Each structure stands twice: as structure tokens, then as C-alpha cells.
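Bench log. Compound arrived from synthesis this morning; before running ITC I wanted a structural hypothesis for how S-adenosylmethionine sits in the protein. Inputs:
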Amino acid sequence: MGFYNDVILPRLCDLAMRNKDLLPYRERAIRAAQGRVLEIGIGSGRNLPFYGPAVKQVVGLEPATKLLEMARHAPHPETPIEFVEGSAEAIPIEGRSIDTVVTTWTMCSIPNVDRAMTEARRVLKPGGKLVFVEHGRAPEPRVQWWQDRLTPAWKRISGGCHLNRDIADLLSRNGFYAEEMRTGYMNGLKPMTFMYEGQASTR
Ligand SMILES: C[S@@+](CC[C@H](N)C(=O)[O-])C[C@H]1O[C@@H](n2cnc3c(N)ncnc32)[C@H](O)[C@@H]1O
């Protein structure tokens, strides 16, 4: 599994995240970011081109060495970027120092996602925001049935991605108040494509 996880998986992840259908989601999310930004699970850096002048610094957190290396070589904005190897469950950043936490298609893959949300709350300044685009649990029981059955096998080949996480519930049970939340399917197979996007603040 070492070669698959260390070499093949990062390339597959980058390939999947190049999907052009994701671009409007990325653009909308990153437009809402401002100040000092922490991007959790920055991956190969596909959001970087969208950061504009409202953002003073981006801290890109990523546990996968190979993806972090790809992010370092991705097209960059003028904005200063600091790349940090680490995990969302133990964010190596002081508390109350971040204006915007960004997550795009990352909450599905974090092993202890509740712990990660607690950490996101800790690093956010009072009044700070979480900006998110995530795929997750669909509303229809028929699609949920498939999501629950596919997830155990899917997790093994996709770097731990869960198809069935209820993002609205995940946010609210961790003390985030969704100020904006849009949901709906994008193109593709229904178990993989129910999207949640929006902004949330801490209570
Ligand atoms: C589907 S990729 C999305 C990458 C990127 N956010 C994007 O939009 O292109 C999922 C990302 O979550 C990251 N990830 C997995 N477990 C993580 C953890 N514990 N902490 C932070 N990121 C994690 C993966 O390494 C990967 O970069």
C-alpha cells in the first residue's frame, strides 16, 4: 500500500481535482475568503489561482508530502503562501489567528473529522469564517443506501474518502452556524456528487 498511497494516490487525487466542473465551486468559495487564510487539505493547490487581494496570506495545510510538493509548483497568486505538512486533527497554528478556514472536498477524507472541526474552531479569530465546498450525504434514501454500501470499499482506494458524511450535521454538531448553505448535485454519479457549499461562523 506504500507505493499506492505515496505515489499513485496523489496523482489520482490531482487528476480528479482537475475536473473542470469543480472550477465554479472553487471560484465562489475562494472569493469569500479574506485576511489570513488556512486551507485545510490544500492537496495539489488547485484553489491557489483563485486567491485575490482580499487575502493577505494563505497557510496551506496538507498531510501528503507528494501533494504538498505539487502545490508548491502550482500556479500561484501574488499572495504570500506558507506550506505546512500536517494534519487537520492537530493544526500546528496558534489559536485565534485565522480569518478564514477553507476546505474544499477535504472533510470526506479526514479520519477524525470532528476533531478537525474543533481544531478549525480553535484557530479561527472571533468573527472568522469557515468557507466550504464538500460532497456528502444525499437527501434521497435510495442514494444514501448506495453511499453507505459503497463507502467501505471506496475508502480503501480513494485515500479514506467517505461518500456518506452529512456535512450540515457535521458543522452544526461542532458549533458552526451555516450562514449560507447551498446543496445539489453536480454532473456525475449521484453517490459521489451531492455537494454542500457555503460559509459558516462559530457560535
Ligand atoms: C479530494 S482531495 C482535495 C484536495 C483539495 N482540497 C482540492 O480541492 O483540490 C482531499 C484532500 O484531503 C487531504 N486530507 C486527508 N486527510 C487529511 C487530514 N487528516 N488533514 C488534512 N487534510 C487531509 C488529502 O491529503 C487531500 O489533499
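What the model suggests: The longest strand covers residues 124-135. The chain has one domain: 2-202.
ITC booked for Thursday regardless.
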